[in-house]
Amino acid sequence: MSSLVNIVLFIALVTTSICVLGMYQKLKRLNAYHAEYRRTADQTAEALRLAGISLNSFATDGRDVLGALDTRISEARDLLIALQDAARTPGWEPLPPAATSAAPRTTDGQIPS
Question: Which pTM value belongs to this model?
Fold first, then answer.
């Protein structure tokens, strides 16, 4: 009778050992998945951080460009007003076309060589 009990206990021990090995393999695989998930989450967080920095930089650069553009537009308006005032001044004559061009031109509009 005791040998029958020993056989049953041995079979239970082998079955339990096999189940424990299976659980160990599953836990090992789960640990690898967790490490991969952690790496992916860290990479995503870093990408989002860099995107935030880029967005802030883009907004700052855009503000700077808009400020410079506003300044240049104001300067152009002031210059236009000054030119309009000068044009209304009695005795004002516009410069001849040759004097306003950057390079001397012939009568047909070509730059001499």
Answer: 0.47
